[in-house]
Amino acid sequence: MSKWIDSQKNELIERFLRSSDLSINDTNLVRLALGQNNDAKTWKELAGLAGLNSEMTIKRHLDRSFRRFKYSFERKERNLKEQLEECQKKLKVQDDIISQHREMVAKTTSVWNLDFSTRTQIWLKANDIENLYEITQWSEKDILRCRNVGRTTLIEIQDALESKDLRLRQE
Question: Model's pTM, two decimal places?
Answer without folding.
Answer: 0.49
